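General statements about sequence and structure are easier to judge against a single worked case. Part of our work consisted of pairing the sequence of a single chain with a tokenised description of its backbone. The amino acid sequence and the backbone structure tokens for this protein are reproduced below.

***
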Amino acid sequence: MVMMRVLASLLVLGALAACAHAPAPTSALTVRRLAVLEHDLRAFTGTRLTSLDDVERELGALEELRLAYLDTLAVEVAPRERVLCLLRIAELHLDLGARVRRVPYPAGASEAERRSLDDLLSQQALPLEAVGRGVLAQAVDEAAAHGVDDRFARRARLYQRIHAGESLDRADLAVLRSELAARTFTAPRTLLEAGRIGQRAARR
């Protein structure tokens, strides 16, 4: 089920290249649409998973949000808004992957049972992380192609450096501090406070 949704995500994103001729909404309309989506995104990323049963529910919530951002992306031609939409789609997948990896162990689980659960959670998280990294690369490429260097482009590049395990320089740390202090279009805390993305989000 997870893999089917992942493949659907990639197919739809690939098809967006053919949508450049679509009429673009006014910038104000796009901003309002994205602002409305922020409420649902914050609720999604703020939900703690307590069992495997929660994962399927969150996959459904991710799908709804993904389609909403894709609807905006399909008709929006302004580079800044396109970068933001791509970044948000990437964050949805990376955040859920990180939360899946942190599903708590059942009370009284043995060491062998914990290892087995971690393996199962990794299988659930890997496809989400693969899509997240792929869309993140699209966001970085979109920003570079159109000369966008705002906070969303910088945040996308920061995620890539964190995931690659690269040392953060002074400029990266400034971006990190700025994002942690931000009050609008905030980054999911699972991706910045723990300083981990993808497989690096596994239990310490």
Observations:
- Confidence is low (pLDDT under 50) at residues 6-13, 15-26.
- The chain has one domain: 2-11+25-201.
- The chain has eight helices and no strands.
- The two ends are 28 Å apart (CA to CA).
